[in-house]
Amino acid sequence: MIRTKVILLLLALTGMTSAAQTTAGQEPKIVNIVNFIRLLEPRDPQITEDVLYQTVVKQVNIMRTYHLTGTFLLQYDALMDRRYQDLLRNLPKDSFEIGAWWELPQPLIEKAGLKWRGRYPWDWHADVGFSTGYTPAEREKIADVYMEDFKHIFGYYPRSVASWFIDAHTLQYLYDKYRIVASANCKDQYGTDGYTLWGGYWNQAYYPSRINSYMPAQNAASQIPVPIFRMLGSDPVRQYDQGISSPRQGVITLEPVYPEAGGSESWVNWFFRTFTEDPSLNFNYTQAGQENSFTWNAMAKGFEIQMPLIAGLRDKGRIRLETMEQSGKWFSAKYKVTPPTSFSVTKDVEGSDRKTLWYNSRFYRMNILWEEGSLRIRDIHLFNEKIPDIYTTQVATSNECTFFTLPVVDGYLWSKPGQLAGLRLKALVGGQEVALKGGDPVFKNQDRETVQVSWPLSQGGTLEVTLREKTVSIKLAGNQSIGWYLDLETAPGASLPFTNISARQIDGSFEKFNYHMSAGKGRFSKPANGAVFRLQPEKNEIRLNLVSIN
């Protein structure tokens, strides 16, 4: 076990000295340590039930050593195992939360009176091991069995229920009948383990639409009043582009089993430095921890790096370490609808000059990436609470599962290696088209809604990007002579949603739903250089309306 002197060493490595403690008015940086528990692992005969149990024992021990607060989520088969019951019942209730992990194994399905269709007693396929594989009425029976057995064992209903994905009907039912206060779903990913969640509220937390658990709602009347926190602590720079042109993305997250990310001391130090020190709007959030299926041998190094570091950050007031229940209650008390949030990186890992900003609101998300002095808007997705996902009312028939929002710019799906899609800033200089270059961007929160980005250009002047809940403004200050514009470039053959490009509006259709993005200032056109569209300013400004809902 790592001792006190190692804690001090880790803190020194991160540069997190007492002079950098939280100051009054700084946005909260919230960390949940969430470990979820399965009884068995049919994919590997070496991972026995005892190996899985001892993994949880080790997680508990290291968390108690550093007096860490955390959440353990039980899959039903683990819930019914006496060893887990005894282990978790004896944890201090003021530090540990016990909740539900919503993967559905054979004992739960059969106790609900349903037929088990899985290959093993726990099957990770979307049409068997998740709520999406059952009718709405069956989902309610399953929920009732789990909740009543949980209450019989622990004396109360769980307040937090999480999974890689949960359908909206189940979430609404768990709120209406059992008053859960928090949920969580997987980080954005494409195809990993057969689960695609792409284009949603990036990181942080959101209130989902009543008819689409992945889609943020725009109005309180249309939302399920349970905040969904995004899991796993995605790398804000690299995770998005990981595995372009591959059917499955790789994983670069805070999960301690990944040697180049959550199991790397240098990466973990960088992640928590940018998480705590770089600007964030309203609050910043990340989730540490690991499922026991990976086993202690695989996660030990990462855990022994992260847990003392998290304890030190908590002790210095740099983070708020909470259970999911505590974070859910705080979110619901503070926000009646999904708030705007941001996650920024002003200094990347060693050897990289990249910077990035993720901005989310209940209407859209945007990501801007700076690399080698250039700017690329690599992602814009719109949200609309009126778009149902098929799983709210229908049964999944595939072993995979997909959730999407409305794409305007997609730097992952519309890219190929060496041909990265995005909106690029260009100008005509001496009759030649050039990419505009600049220095380091500066991020500043103007109010609870607005993030201001100032980017000094090498050609003179400053590009100012203002992101608000419904709009984005881009203007060039201090140099009126540059004829600048934004071009959307994609890889050849990319499947694009656009159906019409007019001067003031771009129309699109995605999964049979029509939507648009309009320009309050600026004009769209179809240039001759092969770009999908060009967006030119009016009086040195572009203003985009990013509200999709009608």
Tell me about this structure.
The structure is a single chain. Strands 13, 14, 15, 16, 18, 19, 20, 25, 29 and 30 form a ten-stranded antiparallel beta sheet that branches. Strands 1, 2, 3, 4, 5, 7, 10, 11 and 12 form a nine-stranded mixed beta sheet that branches. The longest helix has 20 residues, at 296-315. Helix 1 packs across helix 9 (296-315), helix 2 runs parallel beside helix 9 (296-315) and helix 6 packs across helix 7 (168-178). Strand 26 and strand 27 (505-510) form a beta hairpin. The protein is an alpha+beta fold and 550 residues long. The protein has ten helices and 31 strands. The relative contact order is 0.12. 22% of the residues lie in helices and 29% in strands.
Secondary-structure map with pairings?
Elements: H1 4-14, E1 29-37, H2 49-65, E2 70-74, H3 76-79, H4 82-89, E3 96-101, H5 106-111, H6 136-154, E4 160-162, H7 168-178, E5 182-185, E6 195-198, E7 205-206, E8 208-209, E9 212-216, E10 228-230, H8 265-277, E11 284-288, H9 296-315, E12 320-322, H10 324-334, E13 341-345, E14 355-360, E15 364-371, E16 374-382, E17 401-404, E18 406-410, E19 422-429, E20 432-435, E21 442-445, E22 451-456, E23 462-467, E24 471-477, E25 483-489, E26 498-501, E27 505-510, E28 513-521, E29 523-525, E30 533-536, E31 541-545
Parallel strand pairs: 1-2, 1-11, 1-12, 2-3, 3-4, 4-5, 5-10, 6-17
Antiparallel strand pairs: 7-10, 8-9, 13-14, 14-15, 15-16, 16-18, 16-19, 19-20, 19-25, 21-22, 22-23, 23-24, 24-31, 25-30, 26-27, 27-28, 28-31, 29-30
